[in-house]
Amino acid sequence: MIALENVTKSYRTPRGRRYVFRDLSLTVPPGKSIGLIGPNGAGKSTLMRLIGGMDQPDSGRVRTDGSSISWPVGLSGSFQGSMSGRDNVKFVCRVYGQSGAEMRRKVEFVEDFAAIGTYFDEPVNTYSSGMRSRLSFGLSMAFDFDYYLIDEVMSVGDASFRRKAAAAFAERVERSKVILVTHTMSEVERLCDVVLLAQKGQVTLFEDVKAGIDTYMNL
């Protein structure tokens, strides 16, 4: 279960404070994969960050039933550039309470999955964007979460790596749920059980995915 209770979220802009949501309340039933859809600028990514705990509301609160929620899958912008890929993975393991044999297992998994060779022990700021994406996706797949956050459909690396990434992600989705931000409605239909439609500062829950998509397409 994911619940937003009287959530208000705003950002400062050169023209003053912009409110994304005001006093927003909704509850998503437990065990459902969620598609976040809506026009550009409607607050989809903001809502995802609030649910994932990467951003905090100005007021109100976001509650879950204790389910674990990932960082955005494939996010590569948060690595420490002066540290190696290996040390970045170890750092994340420590943040999530992993040590000893479990940490070694995760480091070995990411090293094998990312397949960036000796660069795994080089500073991340020497990586190409593709190498950073490989490292990030491998790190995302090394941890088991109840919900995986996906901001837009994943496009990681070359064709061979994308096939490997898609297969790994499909295996995770069999036992976990997703919170997906996308403009690709076929992905929403394929992966999601419910839809949250964001528009004009409001979010509407559709338990019928097709009805949610149809409403969005007719805005």
TrEMBL record:
The keyword Repeat does not apply. SMART domains: AAA (SM00382). InterPro entries: AAA+_ATPase, ABC_transporter-like_ATP-bd, ABC_transporter-like_CS, ABC_transpr_TagH-like, Bact_Polysacc_Export_ATP-bd, P-loop_NTPase. Residues 2-219 form the ABC transporter domain. GO terms for molecular function: ABC-type transporter activity; ATP binding; ATP hydrolysis activity. Pfam families: ABC_tran. One of its GO terms (cellular component) is membrane. The keyword ATP-binding applies. Keywords: ATP-binding, Nucleotide-binding, Transport. PANTHER family: TEICHOIC ACIDS EXPORT ATP-BINDING PROTEIN TAGH. Belongs to the ABC transporter superfamily. This is Capsular polysaccharide ABC transporter, ATP-binding protein KpsT. It comes from plant metagenome.
